[in-house]
Amino acid sequence: MTGGGPAVSREHGLALLRQMIRVRAFEERCAELYGQGKIRGFLHLYIGEEAVAAGALQALGPEDAVVATYREHGHALVRGLSANAVMAEMFGKATGCSRGRGGSMHLFDAATRFYGGNAIVAGGLPIAVGLALADALRGQRRVSACFFGDGALAEGEFHESLNLAALWTLPVLFVCENNRYAMGTAIERHQAQLDLVLKARGYAVAAESVDGMEVLAVEAAARRAADHVRSGAGPFLLEARTYRFRAHSAYDPELYRAKEEVERWKQRDPVKGFTALLRDGGQLQPGDLERIEAEATAEIEAAVAFAEASPWEPVEDLLRDVQAAPGAAAGVTP
Amino acid sequence: MTGGGPAVSREHGLALLRQMIRVRAFEERCAELYGQGKIRGFLHLYIGEEAVAAGALQALGPEDAVVATYREHGHALVRGLSANAVMAEMFGKATGCSRGRGGSMHLFDAATRFYGGNAIVAGGLPIAVGLALADALRGQRRVSACFFGDGALAEGEFHESLNLAALWTLPVLFVCENNRYAMGTAIERHQAQLDLVLKARGYAVAAESVDGMEVLAVEAAARRAADHVRSGAGPFLLEARTYRFRAHSAYDPELYRAKEEVERWKQRDPVKGFTALLRDGGQLQPGDLERIEAEATAEIEAAVAFAEASPWEPVEDLLRDVQAAPGAAAGVTP
Amino acid sequence: MKTTYREALRAALREALARDPRVFLMGEDVGRYGGTYAVSKGLLEEFGPERIRDTPLSESTFVGAGIGAAMAGMRPIVEVMTVNFSMLCLDQIVNNAATLRHMSGGQVAVPLVIRMATGAGRQVAAQHSHSLEGWYAHVPGLTVAAPATLEDARGMLAAALQDPDPVVLFEHATLYGLEGELAADAGPVDLTRAAVRRPGRDVTLIAFGGTVGKALAAAAALEPEGIQAEVIDLRVLRPLDGETILGSVRRTRRAVVVDEGWRTGSLAAEISARIMEGAFYDLDAPVARVCSAEVPIPYPRHLEEAALPQAAAVAEAARRLVKSHG
Amino acid sequence: MKTTYREALRAALREALARDPRVFLMGEDVGRYGGTYAVSKGLLEEFGPERIRDTPLSESTFVGAGIGAAMAGMRPIVEVMTVNFSMLCLDQIVNNAATLRHMSGGQVAVPLVIRMATGAGRQVAAQHSHSLEGWYAHVPGLTVAAPATLEDARGMLAAALQDPDPVVLFEHATLYGLEGELAADAGPVDLTRAAVRRPGRDVTLIAFGGTVGKALAAAAALEPEGIQAEVIDLRVLRPLDGETILGSVRRTRRAVVVDEGWRTGSLAAEISARIMEGAFYDLDAPVARVCSAEVPIPYPRHLEEAALPQAAAVAEAARRLVKSHG
Ligand SMILES: Cc1ncc(C[n+]2csc(CCOP(=O)(O)OP(=O)(O)O)c2C)c(N)n1
Ligand SMILES: Cc1ncc(C[n+]2csc(CCOP(=O)(O)OP(=O)(O)O)c2C)c(N)n1
Ligand SMILES: [Mg+2]
Ligand SMILES: [Mg+2]
Questions:
Q1: Could you tell me the CA-to-CA distances from B324 to B44, D60, D230 in Å, in that order?
Q2: How far is it, in rounded angstroms, from Cα C299 to Cα C303?
Q3: Is the Cβ–Cβ distance between B262 and B197 less than 8 Å?
Q4: Residues of chain D positioned with their CB less than 8 A from the CB of C94
Q5: What value does the mean pLDDT take over residues B175-201?
Q6: What's the pLDDT tens digit per position in D136-152?
């Protein structure tokens, strides 16, 4: 992506930039709100990794499905959940995308086939395999995309899921967001094999590794990968090499990495980098950035106001939705 | 191993043959005893696969450790458990190698560091990693060998164990007894990647695949592998390609494979093949085979008599050995 | 019509597959092998490999895949070969299947049926003899049931498939060969009520799955002594049918709970606690439990029998209750 | 000496590591990160990476590796970050750690200590708020304990390491910050007895781990009303100390069991059943349970609080018992 400027239209370039900026703005605001006690529990920020969700989700259509982790605010917003619904969920309000039951780690939206928000590391991979299995059984040409961290690579479910998806030629797009750390454990200290393309070969799964700090590179790779999956050729493992700029969660004292390392990666900030690229390429014109930032701020402030004004679920409804009301239909959203 | 005769001494050749013959004889007798109701529960016969245990265990010394599966009569006998103790265990008698508590699937012998007899597929792999970790922590140059079937390859614990052993450079010899079936599921229908050397590469683990029907080939490969492990170079994955001549267990109607396939593999019977090889090479002389077979029969008949004559554990001792008697020392056998 | 528990289960599977194209069966060796307990024998030939799916040994992932497929609108029946291996997929069942509807604020349904064999009694030793029904009955979001009769073997699956939420069905491994008569038109049964399998007035024996037969045997043994034992088959382990249990105990004023789980923390403890809470003032004697001894189940027959609840122990417990008071 | 629960745990770890070269600590983020709850902070620097071992996210395998190392004579302390993830290693704990001694006829010992954080109360929602102590307390071969005080946080580890069999220690996540006084020479404690944390004569409140504080708060609230509640901290969840429990209940004739597990199939059910069996004729009222509501724990504070057992509900249950009779 160096030299010459990217081959991206102004419209699409600005759309990508807008997504990254609103995700960034959303989370920076969340960090403040966490400090104020408005958001509680765990808060895992995606700051620094925005190019992955923003780029990869371009490859999906509305018919496709997404499964993500507890670090999924960005995915939810890019997928199309409203900032209002996500922010209200962060607050735990009844108007939240999961009626407030889930909070930051459990964003759901059946309408956009956004299936969480899973806080058990690697726990989402089998689910994605199952979503894809349903499509395969019904002959539907849809992609189920599953995002997970490098830490998940070590879990048995990663292994079982890649094998099963490959064995049954299922349309799963596995996206490993390799931010080099599982909490405080650097990938070198949790993985014996750092070449994920080789890892994928252990399941005869096609794979590619991409620079996760470059949104256009991610998008292009994800489109190739999704095309492969959609064509019926089986699953694909896409590794996006990225970095988390913030602590793992609010509790993390960050003893395990040097400030200099973080600073070095911040030089590769995906938002700043793409902004510069678009500016150099002429797609970003004077005033654009300010407008996008202002829109993002307005959207997020509106979301905060919405969340603040929203009601809590009544405590009498505590037991609601544990199981369907007796006699209810399955309420399934295929 | 074709042509020219094997490079094996008469003494060692006969020793290997003796092991395979006594394992075979032991299990054929067990099948009878199962029919008579003397042995009960599950009975998983190793018949057809004897060259793997007989060959691989040559690479271990008494200081090394072994972890096996529910198909482990052969490993136990070759490792040095007495036929008496194993047969008594098959009967469930108090003189059995596990005091009768375990039966066929749970043979244990602390003296020879034979750590089971594990009936959860892939459940033994983490244990072997732990045995090896203890050695690594104490600076002991010992090998922990872990036998498991092709079915175990699909389990998460296979993945986790290979990664952990490789990451920590632990002295584990992983031996996959690939008999092409996990119960009724052919390996092509449970594994997306059939090349196990490639699979091992996913963990940067050294690996080799060997003809599991040829005891000398298995022994040679196991020695190379054990040398690698003992040298401190980390774990090794040895695949032995073999075949189970009998049903998975006594309950198996064998609907999933053709008689012809079984017959074809029986042409490669490791006992017959090695007998012929030794005869052709001159190591096996007239009378040898008859003597070995007679000794095996005598050993096994003595074991049956021993088991028959042995007492049951008194029912009052039901709760014995659930935990150590209060105040007891750990009773550990390092 | 003469049939077996195994055949009744198979008939239920066949009907479900024939009736609803969203239904499929998935698990280890359900296809080519014919099912470890031969329950699904012939279904592969009848319905093909797309709908009768042999899986690799990957419990966590094929159960998780069942969850995902259910979320997408299919009606998967996942067979976990035995409860012993279900510890490997417990995370998926508890943290996803049972939890997704609530955690998503009611948006995501998991209409999944999980079948598994359970229990001891076949001398397969410690790792293959678990009875963990009580653990599953602890988990909100699940419905848990245990067919103990041909009618329930035949009818529970259809009811489970109609449930919009996950249902776990436990088939006791010693029951597959159970023979008996079944109405040719036997159909769905409810998944809500316990059943009185034998009426009586002196003591209530409460059992489920593999222990129902033992409770009935105990009741038969007590009859000549003049003790009329009522036998309740719980059928549904979650939610428990408190009405039937308490109704019976209030009448008989005594109860013995029979459970193949280890005594401490058994489902029997829950039943006892519920009777304490709901019928304390009606009791003439404390509720007794006959459970498995607190030991990994040993291989030899005499020790296994000593470890498991037996009819004689049930009868003896009932006798003690009846004699102690009243 | 002023200290915290967290520091007491750390002091116990440090002492164990210093005292016995066979001891090592292994788990996710116990080293560089300093422990998720900062319990092991500084230990990596003090004892080095061989003995303070960060593991990959592979719960089943690092617990299994702890079992193997224990079999070989080491004294591993394995930290499973939280009980929520322990479902992924439950098979290893049940089928190997708890079972190997018996299944091997007494030849194989597994002197392993497993520590895990447990419980809800921090708004981390359904997948991170489990209380599964009752499940572990169900398993023969395990000793299970839950330190609720600084003394026990400091002393249980040493006792567990002396045990030749596996011990599981549950640290309630809301207790790490607990502050108080601890004797400078505080040492090992027993792993057998429950403790009376507050004497009383009118009703026994039975709690453990995270609910002990709530029971004490309830007792304090009842005092002005003239109700003297005795508070028992179970401490050891397996084997249960029936003597202390029954001794107290026979005196007070009433009991409330407080348990953060979901009500159905809770450990509280076992306690209730044992009181039924051991003190039925001494009871003036049925044993009551205050447990978690049967719902995946929701995120927002008001719903989480409503789902969990609270001091007010404990006091109310006690009040009802005292008023109902006697
Ligand atoms: C099975 C499981 N084990 C442990 C945890 C605790 N935990 C939460 S996030 C995390 C690190 C995961 O790292 P990675 O997969 O790389 O994702 P990242 O946080 O870097 O996005 C851990 C250990 C968990 N949630 N689930
Ligand atoms: C975790 C687990 N799942 C299922 C089973 C049931 N089971 C016992 S043996 C077996 C097949 C294992 O095949 P493989 O590993 O190839 O070993 P083989 O029997 O061929 O020696 C299965 C599915 C089990 N014991 N453990
Ligand atoms: Mg990461
Ligand atoms: Mg096999």
A1: 31, 25, 34
A2: 7
A3: no
A4: 87, 130
A5: 98
A6: 999 999 999 999 999 99
Q: How far apart are CA C92 and CA C86, in angstroms?
A: 10
**pLDDT tens sequence across B201-256:** 999 999 999 999 999 999 999 999 999 999 999 999 999 999 999 999 988 989 99
The owner of tokens 């499509």 is A135
From D59, D151, D171, D230, the catalytic residue: D59
Among candidates C285, C289, C290, which has minimal Cα distance to C322? C285
Task: Name the residue type at position C193.
Answer: R
User: Could you tell me the distance, in angstroms and rounded to a whole number, from the CA of residue B183 to the centre of ligand 4?
Assistant: 7
Best C95, C234, C260 residue to mutate vs chain D (most D CBs within 10 Å): C95
**B154 to B129, C63, C300: CA distances (angstroms):** 18, 14, 32
Give which of A28, A70, A18, A76 is closest to A48, Cα–Cα. A28
Q: In degrees, to the nearest 5, what angle opens at C-alpha C244 toward C-alphas C241 and C248?
A: 145
Strand segments (E) across chain C: 2-4, 23-27, 52-54, 75-82, 113-118, 143-145, 167-172, 179-181, 195-198, 203-207, 229-233, 236-238, 255-262, 288-292
Considering only the C-alpha atoms of chain D, give the largest distance between any 2 of them, rounded to a whole number of Å: 62
Helix or strand holding residue A166 (H, E):
helix A156-167
Contact criterion met (CB < 8 Å) for B99 and D73: no
* Spatial CA neighbour of B167 closest among D270, A185, A90, A184: A185
Tell me the two tokens of residue C319. 């006798």
Gap from C238 CA to chain D (nearest CA, Å): 9
pTM: 0.98
Report which DSSP code applies to C96: I
Is-cis flag, bond preceding A126, omega within 30?
Answer: no
Question: Measured between alpha carbons, how far is C33 from C35 in angstroms, rounded to an integer?
Answer: 6
Structure letter (DSSP) for residue C86: G
C-beta separation of A200 from A168 below 8 A: no
Q: Could you give the 3-state DSSP secondary structure of residue D324?
A: helix
In chain C, count H helices and then E strands: 12, 14
At B111, list the tokens: 């003296």
Measured from the Cα of C128, ligand 2's closest atom is: 25
Taking only the tens place, the pLDDT of each residue in B33-75 is 999 999 999 999 999 999 999 999 999 999 999 999 999 999 9
Q: Which atom of ligand 2 is nearest to the CA of B153?
A: 15
CB of B83 closer than 8 Å to CB of B278: no
Positive or negative, the CA dihedral A131, A132, A138, A143 is positive
CA-CA distance, B106 to D37, in Å (whole number)? Answer: 39
- Among chain C residues, CA nearest to D279: C286
Q: Where are the alpha helices (DSSP H) in B147-250?
A: 156-167, 196-201, 215-228
Say whether B318 and C298 touch across the interface (CB within 8 A): yes
Residues lining ligand 2, judged by CB closer than 6 Å?
A: B 71, 119-121, 149-152, 177, 179, 181-183, 244, 248; C 28, 57, 81, 85, 88
Q: Which of D90, D138, D262 sits opposite C87 (nearest CB)?
A: D90
Residues lying with their CB under 5 A of ligand 3, a single-atom ion: A 149-150, 179, 181-182
Of the candidates C72, C91, C78, C233, which has an alpha carbon nearest to the alpha carbon of residue C169? C78
Residue C15 pLDDT:
98
* Atom number in ligand 2 closest to CA C29: 23
What is the DSSP secondary structure assignment for residue B180, as one 8-state letter?
S
The single residue of C128, C130, C151, C260 carrying the catalytic annotation is: C128
Residue C264, Ramachandran bin (φ over 0: left; ψ between -120 and 50: alpha; else beta): beta
CB A53 within 8 A of CB A20: no
Determine phi and psi for A133, rounding to 5 degrees: -60, -40
β-pair partners for D108? none
